[in-house]
Design goal:
Elements: H1 3-14, E1 41-44, E2 47-51, H2 55-63, H3 67-72, E3 82-86, E4 89-92, H4 98-108, H5 117-123, H6 158-168, H7 177-185, E5 236-242, E6 248-251, E7 267-270, E8 279-280, E9 284-285
Parallel strand pairs: 5-8
Antiparallel strand pairs: 1-4, 2-3, 4-9, 5-6, 6-7
């Protein structure tokens, strides 16, 4: 048995134990029909919710941010606070992990996560040194970095992420910006998933994180009202929505971000083909049982 085959078998055997991702009988939050795969997804019920931010929330965000962020007025691209409504949908409880994505790569032959130094330079938004930081997330022989199997997969484009979602779930897709935001903050328009006050203990960010990705189940105190882990923190998350200029909308914040960015209302965009160590994803689906 070659090394790659042994690795894939080890992932299959280990998946039920990855922080309870696929073995725990999660309870229904609403008492109504759950998603067809409730061990992986949570149901977000139909109805209205508060989306976007008002001047008060943006003022709080700037107070929590560096002078660079304040001078660049990063939060002015956020949607004005307004009432929006959605039908019921399902969304992944956890970010998609390196191990889960490895099963997809093995089953479909899809390209593994990664980016060359030259591609990284051409992408244009560098920030992180390729040799020192990017290389620790590169796959070897179509297998993820050792020790990061239950961390969120990164270095995948929006196209890669959408392909995975179609493969994994019936009706699987990336969530829209509105779906993502409702799942991340609940219905009452709170500034953070847990309330209106910043708490660095509830997420992996620059304020209190280890300087890299963490297991997707590590911050249970930071879950959203709908039961979503890492609604902010760990990595930015692709959506299926786009800005008028064509850039795909990213939501959340990553492990090296400031508190002001780590709000569900925050949004920014990157070209859909971008691959970065700060960007991961979760899937959505209309597939509801019952």
């Amino acid at each position: 048995m070659n090394g790659r085959r042994r690795f894939l078998i080890s992932i299959l055997l280990a998946l039920p134990a990855l922080g309870g991702i696929s073995s725990v009988a999660w309870p229904s939050v609403s008492g109504r029909p759950e998603c067809a795969n409730p061990d992986q997804m949570v149901r977000v019920g139909p109805g209205p919710f508060w989306m976007g931010s008002d001047k008060g929330e943006r003022r709080l965000a700037y107070t929590l941010s560096s002078e660079t962020v304040r001078e660049a007025r990063w939060f002015e691209a956020e949607r004005p606070r307004h009432r929006a409504a959605l039908p019921a949908f399902c969304i992944d409880r956890f970010l998609v992990t390196q191990a889960q994505y490895a099963l997809f790569v093995a089953a479909t032959g899809h390209r593994p996560p990664g980016i060359s130094a030259e591609e990284y330079q051409r992408q244009g938004f560098l920030v992180h040194d390729y040799d020192r930081e990017v290389t620790r997330y590169l796959w070897r022989n179509r297998t993820p970095p050792v020790g990061l199997e239950d961390h969120p997969v990164v270095l995948v484009s929006a196209e890669d992420a959408a392909a995975y979602c179609r493969w994994r779930h019936s009706g699987g897709r990336l969530p829209t910006e509105a779906e993502w935001e409702k799942a991340a903050r609940g219905d009452d328009g709170r500034s953070f998933p847990w309330g209106n006050h910043w708490d660095p203990e509830r997420l992996n960010s620059a304020a209190r994180g280890p300087g890299g990705t963490t297991p997707v189940h590590q911050y249970p105190k930071g879950i959203s009202p709908h039961g979503v882990f890492d609604p902010v923190g760990n990595v930015f998350q692709w959506t299926s929505s786009a800005f008028p200029d064509g850039r795909t909308i990213l939501k959340g914040c990553a492990w090296d971000d400031e508190p002001g960015l780590c709000r569900p209302a925050f949004r920014h965009g990157r070209p859909f083909e971008s691959r970065h160590i700060l960007i991961g994803f979760r899937c959505a689906s209309p597939n509801i049982a019952g």
